[in-house]
Structure prediction request, 300 residues.
Amino acid sequence: MDEKKLSPLMPNEALGYFLDSESSNRLYLRATSIRNCLENIVETIFVHILDEEQKKGWNKKNLNARLNTLSDFFPNDINDKLHGIRKLGNKGAHQNGHKDLVEDELELTLVDLSQICEWTITAYFVKNGFTEHPWIPTVFSTLPPIYRIRTLEEVLASESKKVGCVEILCHLEEVQNYHEKVITGQVMPRPSEEPSENEKRLGGFLLLIDKLSMAYLKNRERVKSIEFINEMYDKGFINDLFKEQMLDKLDLLGQDIDKLKISVNLEETRKNLDKILPAVRKDEESLFVTLFTAITSHSS
Prediction:
């Protein structure tokens, strides 16, 4: 899929401001549109991240204060980029800042602006895991593959630093041995029970590997999907059996790739999401579902 043909992942209203910031031939108008886009994202998406204490006085805060309120959600480098976008937008909002606008800086800011919603999803996964809620992988999979790839690559890079090869392989072998005994009738299946936090963490890491390899394949990058699994094996994050199972899965899925329903744009994401959300019980909804719905919405 051609990444250049995809619009930035953001609500339609914010996207309108983003497109304005690309099309105008006056730098100060482009900078003003950048600020409007950032403000819209803060008001329609970031607002959902707030806890009850942070909500106090929110409506009276300026953009700088609002971003500072959310500083604990994002890593420091992303917070710096968000404030960088804000500062450039300020130059467009005030006449005395117009002279300081430079096209190269504006273009770089647009790149950052286009990634804000992806940063939000990434930050959520890093903080809460990929399996915090059973519906999360399904909801996330409604995105076109390229968005999933960029997000999952960032999350995996972060999680890889926290997971030791010995502990992940021990967990994997324990799970595999148990399933083998169940299949061969050596033991009866255990009653369903809530996994421990450590089991969730390690299981979530393996699911990330699975989902990222599938996203590569669905993005018509079959070779890359195979290379990725081999890379995870070479780094010691998966064992022979997991590698073999994943390569078989990729092969089978690759044979039917043209039959799969894969979103090619955000409009299709919205349609697929509309089909899924009614099945998510209200008591099963999570912050992720709220954020994701806001990010892919038609309007605020």
The mean pLDDT is 93. Residues 197-218 form the longest helix (22 residues).
